[in-house]
Amino acid sequence: MRINIRLRQRKSLITTPIYYVNSDPHIGHVYTTLLADCLHRWNKIMGANPAVLTTGTDEHGLKVERAALKIGKSTREFCNGVSTSFRNMNLRANIDSDLFIRTTDENHKIAVERFWNELHERGYIYLGEYNGWYCADDEAYIKPSDVIDLRDEETGRIVKVKRDNLKRVELISETNYKFKLSSMCSRLLEFYTSNPEFIYPKTFYKQVVEDVESGYDDLSISRCKDKLSWGITVPNDDNHVIYVWLDALINYLTAVRYPDQSYTSMWPPDYQILGKDILKFHAIYWPAFLLAADIEPPRRLIVHSHWTVDGAKMSKSKGEVIDPIDRLQKYTVDGLRYYLMRDHNLQYDVNYSDARVVEVINTALKNHLGNLYSRCTAVKVNPTARWPLITHEILHKESSILIENLSNLAENCNNFYLNCEISRALRLIHSTVADCNVYFTSMKPWKLCKSRRQPDEELLRCVLIVSYETLRVCAILLQPVVPNIADSILTGLSVKHGERSYRDSRIILNETFTHREIDN
What we know:
Layout: E1 12-15, E2 19-20, H1 27-45, E3 51-58, H2 62-70, H3 75-92, E4 99-102, H4 106-121, E5 125-135, E6 140-142, E7 147-151, E8 158-162, E9 170-179, H5 185-194, E10 199-200, H6 202-213, E11 219-220, E12 222-224, E13 233-234, E14 237-242, H7 244-249, H8 251-254, E15 271-275, H9 279-292, E16 301-304, E17 307-309, E18 312-313, H10 324-331, H11 333-343, E19 350-351, H12 354-376, H13 400-418, H14 422-443, H15 445-448, H16 454-478, H17 483-492
Helix pairs in contact: 2-3, 5-6, 10-11, 11-12, 12-14, 12-16, 13-14, 13-16, 14-16, 16-17
């Protein structure tokens, strides 16, 4: 099965993972959601309609059950509280999501039960035995080759942990239902070969292919109810609960009204955004489940690395968690959004630093973008507070390089946005604004405005036009990342809401904006 990943003009479906509710959100959750939000907003600017962004919370499993017990709350009450905190995070971060899926909702339960029955009817599920390692923190069955010994710092005892993240594992032996994953490996490899852009960046694609080539045993997809009661009961067997990851992955189908056949109008997702720590579940288990059910897999997985604190992955137990609500209030919504998108790197981990947040905001948003707007709209250089009359004759040779770069900016940014390489788009935009600031300073418009000579008057108009066009184009391209700042700039330049799409981001050197008011 080969998938065409080019964005279809008539729809866009983008998903975040649904977040596990064992604790409140941290900066990494905001980052993942923000990547999806920026891509969603970009696709809307590109004209996608309908454009849907889904997110939500994963509320079943042993880890959630234990977390609720630890603080003396019922599991339902605990889930309601943490799920609300994720909703609030989205509101505070100005996430433009359309759907918030909870795995405890009735419509999700119906979708999971129907999908289970589909796999069972097709012969992919059977009752078997599991004897092996399980990581409750990751809700994952672990291969023996991925388990190592580690000395516990507190007790001094040797314990078993996962090789990749050093989380504790436990040996379990139980009867449960299994999915015939071993029989899907060849189909998965064929799918990867036919869809080499299925996983981005390429490093993660190669990692997944090598993993599947090494082979997989059949996957346990249920837990005995006497070991875990908090979950969706296996259809026609009250003694088992459906494996939390099978349950969670179906949320993407729940979002498009599966099992109602209308789901096909939005399926498959155009992009699914996820962290590298859940790559196996989305790149191996998920397409295997879908192919077995004869449902098309997602068109593309965008995989990102982690934000760290002092070089280590954020850990609530170690006090190494950055509170997103606190930082949104401290640095403003657009300020934090810009920093996270400006410094992010899909392939490599990035260290979070409050000092770096301040540096990025001051350099890019205040000293360059804000400074250019305040300088070129100042009464001193534009006392009429209107766009000047534009004629090609007044365009000065000093502005030719700027104009050429501005003409290519939208297309270059589009390529970066569609690969979720948003940092590269922002660097390009920042460079363009910085160059315009240098140009503005070199032309000395505060002196030109005092001259009565026609050449100086024409040169002043040229400087203002190039500066306004730079701001207009850059603000359109910045809308997905800093929607409030972009709106302020575009409104200040009298750019109407119907003039802010991708097709409007080309440089316009005609009379479209002539004599429109400028907000000083």
